[in-house]
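WP5 quarterly update. Target: Oxidoreductase. Source organism: Thermogemmatispora aurantia. Length: 393 aa.
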Amino acid sequence: MQLRVAVVGAGSMGWNHLRVLQELEDSVQLVAVAETNPSALQRAVQRFHIAGYSDYRQMLDEQRPELVAVVVPTHLHCEVAAFALDLGLNVLVEKPLTSTVEEAEALIELARQRDVRLAVGHIERFNPAVTEVKRRLNAGTLGRIFHLHARRIGPFPPRIRDVGVTLDLASHEIDTMRYLVDAEISQVSAQIQQHIHRTCEDLLLGLLRFSNDALGVLDVNWLTPTKVRELTITGEKGMFLLNYLTQDVFFYENDYSPTSWDALRSLTGVSEGTMIRLKVQKAEPLRREYEDVIRSIMSDSSPSVSGEDGLAVLKVVQQLLASALANNGLLSQAQEPHTLPEEADRSPTAGSSTSLSHQQGPNEQVLPRRMASPSSLTLPQRHEEHPSTLRGS
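Structure tokens (predicted):
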């Protein structure tokens, strides 16, 4: 049996979703794509031989797919996902789930009311290196976990204009750490800076304390000229070093062997033991993510990364930004901000400007309102007439 799937958004990430879905031809029938950028839409239709729409509402009303992939800018996630859920369609939303905690809670409640699946694309959960480390942690290879340190750094991606590094990049690490530690985050502290992004922070240093007393360090920025995606997990019996990009995992074992060297006899602790490169069966995480979502729909079970998982990450993001403000890690306007390209290639409204509201902070610092708590949240309603463009939130 094939699952009918449609994609909203044919930018760079949307293209990856379309490609993987077509490769899953045994279990998936890719039926349509919605994209308001005419050239991107034409390219997708010609490449994948599917129906194309300039308006996602019309596509969903006419096609009624069994799964909708929402691959649009973050500030539009709630609008698109809510429309699909309200039709009774299962939804996979690219991470982060939404821009705010309130939007995420509304989507989760709507999915519950309509009795459909809501999955969130925290793709590192499906990275073979991560799943291998998780398997070994469950087997007790590391013993008690003491400390996790994530480095997710690299150059600024011009296509990201509506969010900062905390929501866009650190959310990967927050979800991965929760998954590996199997505990919730009870306390956070953070510092942020803004250097080249127009409206949001582009550097985050964060500290997380988990309910089991493990500590997590977030070193995240869009300022580094080389791309690094690494995570270390230190525990009683040694340390795992995980490379997200190469999907390599190394285990550095603690050595408690006695020594005859007098200078070391008085010292207690660990010494360097054997380093092992673990065998990892490499695979594309996005494909594994779709296989998981499809399995959850077919078996009427919860996906591995649920709406509640996405909500938990958003709450931590909100706490990190609040901590940064309390610690005077405030956003400041760059004196001469770089001019960013106007085209956001992952957006179905590519070519249009993104409008973010701001509030004034201490010392006249400009702070984003994206994570602020609105007094009420109104989900988008279905339209009888289908506009040709996707309106921003």
